[in-house]
Prior knowledge:
The complex is a heterodimer of chains A (251) and B (401). Helices cover 37% and strands 26% of the residues of chain A. Chain A is α/β, with parallel strands linked by helices.
Amino acid sequence: MIEVRNLCKRFRDKTRGEIRAVDNVSFRCQPGQIYGLLGANGAGKTTTLRMLATILEPSDGTAVVCGYDVVEQPTKVRASVGFLSTATALYPRLTARELVEYFGRLNGIDGRPLKERVDGIFDRLEMNGFRDRHCDKLSTGMKQKTSIARTLVHNPAVMIFDEPTLGLDIMTARSIISFIRECRADGKTVIFSTHLMTEVEKLCDLIGIIHGGKLLTEGTLPELREQYRQNDLEEIFVQVVGADRMPQETR
Amino acid sequence: MSVRNIGIVYRKELREALRDRRTLVSSILVPLFIFPVLTVGIGFSAAALIGQASREPSKIMILGGEDSPAVVAGLQQVKNLQVVPARTDYTDLISNKRIRAVVDIPNGFQTGSELGQHPEVKIYVFSGDMKSMFGATRIERYFSEYRDNAVKDRLVAEHLPESLMKPFSVKQQNVVSEEKVAGESYGGIVVYLVILMCMTGAMYPAMDLTAGEKERGTMETILSSPIKRTHLVLGKFLLVLTASLATATLSVISLGASFAILSRLARLHSEGEPLPVLALHWRTIVAIFAMALPVAVLFSAALLTISLFARSYKEAQSYLTPMTFVVIIPAVAAILPGVELTPQLAVIPILNVGLLCKELVAGTYHWNYIAVIFASTCVYAGIALYLAVKMFQRESVLFSS
């Protein structure tokens, strides 16, 4: 489970002074649920998810991931989370198998259990054809599978996806979407950020609309439709953030 | 757990480094081949050129000497001197290297010298030009032989013994071991090389493991794993240190081999004395590497910290290039003749190790200085490593892109 409590992140910028990239954001996501964080570029999605994955430290507030506090127990949080984004690239000079094993070892798995775990994932994701190929020689789809295998190697209870389909072709994007569904089916807690309405409509059990670092509204898709008297999510989004408000640059 | 994690990172970085052509070239191939090429290639060519110049006849001109025919005739007979007809524009001819030297014999030289009037012969040269110097030396050698013969003739005429010419002799005798002689001659180069190569070897991996990782987008991947940032930076640091020491070790081996080849070649091609062979005692080598270890730690940690601020490999290169001068200047200062250890210099990083190692190579062990320099370098290295660990905790540095 994930419980985000009044999470804030402030940055200092030489020209613009203090920037509130994430401003008092709170939400919850239960196991077997997909929480979709919907927002334009620069809305604060990535910063929020980076704080949940303990890559960044909150300026204020906190979050509890699988019972561990992101500020107090960041190492335990990372051991419970699989984090995937377009910014999480692969080591070009390692083979797919070496890369997944490396992350397995960093998660404390070794020897026979590691081998069995990696074999299982490679079978499931049909990666045996390129297991010994260097990552810089893989196609985009193969790279994406290797990234997924990396996030799964320690069997985390929580999965965080930061715009995972950004820049991918339709087929690769579809395989990512179906993988996210599988995670939910496995009972994992899933947080997913995107700026694509269609992905949110297809996937998410709960939707939070974030803008200018603030979580402006949240609810299930039917709840949002009823609240804003709109059927189309894009219309709802525009109504929530305000048509004339340009997204605030945060980084 | 922590040692295990540092080991995991280290092994992975080592595996990647060994698969990276740029790392292999900068850490292994360059130190292995650049020194044989530099020392044997350039050294041998220089020796060959000097040898050729010393055998080549020097074109000279004689001014005056009409009333000293024996002297002029003698000069014309000297091997490797080619006398050309006198001209008034000899200064230009020397400066244009058309002739190498001009000998100006004063009027009445022959009779004047016989009568003890102390006439002066002038040799006009191009100071600093090697071939002009060779010509002048040959002329001088002729005149000193001429003088000796004149004195000898007079002694014979006076029925005095020839030994009066040299009532006593002076001779230099080396009393220091061959190892120390070689250390004094080449020690500076070895020390300079170890220091510079510790830096060069650390440079590429330091950039690759920080700025390179940011550029490739793998920094966020590794930061999302449960490893603590301290363990991550220590694993990376150990790899940079390994590369630094490997490069320095290979350079010294390669330089030793080059010197051995060079002194053999020099013996074959030069008429002069053979070069002293650089044969270092194992104890000296151990001592140099013991002193180089904290220097390598200092470089590895400092380069890692600086390149972490860069967003790309190119940016890191522009940060680290000036660092080369920061290292070269004290390293060169240490090998300058006459610069010796003082209590003040003993705390200046790099320069202190350079000066100390120069003494170690020459077989001198000042234990007080060794203790002070080792301790101070360890302190500097510790500070650099502490900064590297601290910088790895700073979000503004890690995510400067």
